[in-house]
Every structure is written in C-alpha cells, then in structure tokens.
Write a structure and sequence with these properties.
Helix content is 88%, strand content 0%. The chain has 192 residues and is mostly helical.
C-alpha cells in the first residue's frame, strides 16, 4: 500500500515544481531546479519501494541484507556519486540517489526475497511495475497535456493533476488485492 499510496505525492512534483519555485525565486531558477527535483522525486519513490522491507528485515533480526547493501553501496556507488556531483553538480547529485536505490533493488533484494520470503522477488517487481504502469497510464498524459498548453496556469495544472489522481485511484483499486480493496472501501465512506 505504501508504494501505491506515495505515488500521487511524487507525481505532483512535475505539475507544481515550476510554479512554486517561480513564485519563490524566479522562472530561470525554477527551470534550473526542475530536472534535479524530478530525479529526487524518482529516488524518493524508489526509497519508498524498498524502505518497508529494509525496516522489516532489521526488525525481525535479519539486518544482514541491509548491512550488505549499505557496505556494497559504499564501495561501488560512492565513486560514481563523486563523479556525478563533480561533473553534473545538482543533477548529478540527484541522479546518484537513483543509482544508490537501484543498486539495492537490483543486487541485494533478490537475494533477500529468495532466502526470507515465501513469495519471490518477481512478485514484488510485478507490483512495483503495475504501480509504475499506473503512473505512466494516468499522470504522464496529464502532464504532457499540461505542458503542451503554452503558459498553462495553476488552475489548469490543478485540474489535470486531479484528473490524473482520479484515474490513478480507479486503476489502483482495480489492481490491488481483494482484501486491501475491501479494507479501503470499508474504511472510507466517500467511496461507498
């Protein structure tokens, strides 16, 4: 649920980062910060996808995967991070976070799933992929429409984001497990 539930928050960033930063700074600074902020949103989403399992493994007394992930990241990801920051400054720093989390997802967590969980890594990847597909299906077209309109105002952005949010919510309800769907419908009276 954390993976599905956090996505709309991160999907809001491309809609509202430029207007907010234009208000705080100016248009030039807002455009300069747009790409690093988008990369940070992706990295925070990746963090959300692996954080629950990391906390669970540590809580049940099996932190070896988390420790191994951090140790190997220190060896392999740190040099890449240093290079990216020196070469690409803010964009490189944001990209380094994505590399750090992808390293854990690709190299460490398949082993943890294989040894610790009944359902395999492929099930987890399937859920993450379905969530990403939902994002691509709903928010990305709304984002392209918003920025296809020259000088879209804040009301256009809010409206398109809300349309994407509604479609994503319906998509999520239809792709989640029956138990989770029943729980959500029972506990949120607005859906009834």
């Amino acid at each position: 649920i954390l993976i599905v539930g956090m996505l709309p928050l991160f999907a809001a960033i491309p809609f509202f980062s430029v207007p907010v930063f234009t208000f705080i700074f100016d248009k030039e600074v807002a455009l300069m910060l747009e790409v690093p902020l988008l990369l940070l949103a992706v990295s925070f989403y990746l963090n959300t996808t692996i954080r629950t399992m990391s906390v669970y493994l540590t809580a049940v007394g099996r932190p070896k995967y988390v420790i191994l992930s951090n140790a190997l990241s220190l060896i392999f990801v740190t040099p890449i991070t240093v290079y990216l920051v020196i070469e690409y400054q803010l964009v490189g720093a944001a990209l380094a976070w994505i590399i750090y989390y992808m390293f854990s997802i690709i190299f460490i967590f398949p082993k943890a799933f294989k040894e610790e969980f009944e359902n395999g890594y492929s099930e987890w990847v399937k859920k993450v992929f379905l969530t990403q597909f939902g994002l691509t299906l709903t928010f990305v077209p709304c984002w392209f429409i918003a920025f296809g309109i020259s000088e879209a105002n804040i009301y256009d952005l809010i409206g398109l984001y809300m349309i994407g949010l509604l479609i994503y919510s319906l998509y999520s309800l239809n792709t989640m497990s029956n138990e989770l769907r029943a729980y959500i419908i029972d506990h949120f009276s607005i859906i009834n």
